[in-house]
Amino acid sequence: MHAGTPDRRPSAARPRQSPVTTGSGGRTSCYVVCLAMTAPRPATLAVLGSLLALLAAAASRRTLDAAPADDGQWVRPAKDLAATRYSSLDQVTAANVKTLRLAWSFDLGVERGEEAAPLVVGDTMYVVTPFPNVLYAFDLTRPGTVRWKYEPTPATEAQGVACCDVVTRGAAYADGLVVFNTLDAHTVAVDARSGREQWKTRLGEIARGETMTMAPLIVGDKVLVGNSGGEMGVRGWLTALDLHSGRLAWRAYSTGPDRDVLIGPGFKPFYTFDQGRDLGVTSWPPEAWKIGGGTVWGWRSYDPELDLVYYGTANPGPWNAEQRPGDNKWTATIFARRPVFLWMNSCPIFIGSFR
């Protein structure tokens, strides 16, 4: 299938692959853990037991799709659109935190880094593992009970392409869907109640060094995702997908001509060294922008009043700066964009680049 085309085959039509099992020889598996206040084990996903009961009780009084800011739910890896990672729940305090004790644990069966924050939606907690990116739904009314699990079966070759462990930074929830990325550069949407795949879209090519480790940001009906692999000679991008179909809405590259970066006539940067046409080409040695990095694997935020998504692009490639003289635009840059792309919106609104 071509990149950007949803794969609508049922899960049963694809080869299935078992998750990595717990190993020996001193390696530590990933766990979902409700724990006492002791030092966490390496590669452990920690969830406080007393908090889970609180989250379930607060959230179960609301419908699955309703997620007020501080009702005990956690529908995005960074909590809210501003990426504050802050909850105003106050039942656990500095005075009583020492009383927390282990409530339950669950072995995820994976021996790699667990960087994905769990989601809490209604009375369900969702956890996505490192490769092979299995998505679990836990019933918070019956601690430790798995409601369902979804296995996306990413290509095993992706493990050899990832530069910095086979991790994922998590999933996001909106409109009854749990959306996450797989290491082999697919974005997947799963029905939050049943665990059934709704769509799966291929966005990159592991043969070119592209992987995906970031967590999606959902703004309105757009799913914003980016690629990894700046050390592998890839060209970075931020892509918007339609939440309900998985179809590609737009893609903004981090390097190349203005049209590829989605820079329109209304783009008016403050600094003179950022002014000019096609700087994403002319600030590089010939053709070097095509493998110049600037991937978008980190965190993004959204300001609904300004209708702007903020995100940073990563390091240029290759690492050796002597091989790429120039300003190497638009890597190591902060952009602000409209989440719904139209040329007349003059997006992006540029914030700054750093050298």
The proportion of residues forming helix, as a percent range, comes to under 10%
Number of helices: 3
Shape estimate: globular
- Distance between termini? 39 Å
Whole-number mean pLDDT: 83
Number of strands: 19
Oligomer: single chain
Report strand order across the widest sheet.
4-5-6-7
Characterize the largest beta sheet: strand count, sense, and whether it forms a barrel: 4 strands, antiparallel
How does the helix and strand content classify structurally?
mainly beta
Low-pLDDT windows of residues: 8-27, 35-68, 342-347
> What is the string of helix and strand elements?
EEHEEEEEEEEEEEEEHHEEEE
What is the beta-strand fraction? Answer: 25-35%
Radius of gyration using CA atoms only: 21 Å
Topology:
Blueprint lengths: L30 E4 L10 E3 L1 H11 L45 E3 L11 E3 L2 E5 L6 E5 L5 E6 L21 E3 L2 E6 L3 E6 L5 E6 L14 E3 L2 E5 L10 E6 L5 E6 L4 H4 L17 H4 L17 E4 L4 E5 L20 E5 L11 E5 L2
Parallel strand pairs: 1-2
Antiparallel strand pairs: 1-3, 4-5, 5-6, 6-7, 8-9, 9-10, 10-11, 12-13, 13-14, 14-15, 16-17, 17-18, 18-19
Provide a descriptive summary of the structure in words.
With 355 residues, the protein is mainly beta. The longest helix has 11 residues, at 49-59. The model is unreliable at 8-27, 35-68 and 342-347 (pLDDT under 50). A four-stranded antiparallel beta sheet has the order 4-5-6-7, covered by helices on one side. The chain contains three helices and 19 strands. It is globular, with a radius of gyration of 21 Å. 44% of the residues are buried. Helix content is 5%, strand content 25%.
